[in-house]
Design a protein that fits this description.
This protein is an alpha/beta fold. Helix content is about 25%, strand content about 15%. The protein contains four helices and six strands; from the N terminus they run βαβαβαβαββ.
Length: about 210
């Protein structure tokens, strides 16, 4: 029996005192506030029949999945396909439009529709939807939680709404510890809900997002 719903959960705030674009760099764990955000996300679905828990291999996603594992008694299944995309700016203090003043960055910025600085949007969309579809089909009923990252979740949200994948990163709707919920209609997924369980903490957080 496939899953009833798929909940795509973004990780909580990351401890990042240098405010760099961390991407796939190792060692970036949740801040104290980030742990509180992850707890609020897990509590928000307390009455749901959760049956499986997946998480990106990156530390911040694994830590954000932990409250779900503890509260619902679910093992964390590490899913490589829902990881943050790598990009050329990892490890730098990426700021737009200030980055345009760096000639070394110009070749990476030549095509924002692809984008030219990292993994193509269509690639992120494809791997995310593949992982979601397989998790949905493999479920023993109930609902699934998948802890991922901003851009991968945004790609799925835009895809199921048949929106262009290329977009302005500053206008993404995917806050820290937000939950984007998918339902299955026929042979495709649709967005069923979006919520921000940690909304009361967002004003105090630092969210550098991604490019």
């Amino acid at each position: 029996m496939p899953a009833d719903l798929i909940h795509l959960v973004r990780h909580g705030e990351v401890h990042n005192p240098d405010r760099i674009l961390y991407g796939r760099l190792p060692g970036y764990h949740l801040s104290e506030l980030g742990h509180r955000m992850a707890d609020l996300a897990a509590v928000s679905l307390a009455d749901r029949p959760l049956s499986a828990l997946y998480a990106s291999p990156l530390l911040r996603a694994q830590e954000s999945a932990q409250p779900w594992a503890e509260r619902y008694g679910l093992p964390i299944v590490t899913e490589e396909r829902i990881i943050e995309p790598a990009n050329w700016f990892e490890g730098s203090r990426f700021r737009f439009p200030q980055v345009l003043g760096n000639p070394r960055a110009w070749p990476q910025l030549i095509n924002p529709l692809k984008p030219s600085w990292g993994e193509a949007f269509v690639s992120v969309e494809a791997r995310m939807l593949e992982a979601i579809d397989e998790a949905w089909a493999a479920a023993a009923g109930g609902e699934i939680v998948m802890v991922s990252h901003q851009l991968p979740i945004v790609m799925v949200a835009r895809s199921v709404k048949k929106m262009r994948l290329a977009h302005d990163p500053r206008r993404r709707r995917c806050t820290l510890s937000s939950i984007t919920t998918l339902a299955r209609e026929g042979d495709r997924f649709v967005e069923a809900d979006y919520q921000e369980p940690a909304g009361e903490l967002l004003a105090a957080s630092i969210d550098l997002g991604a490019v």
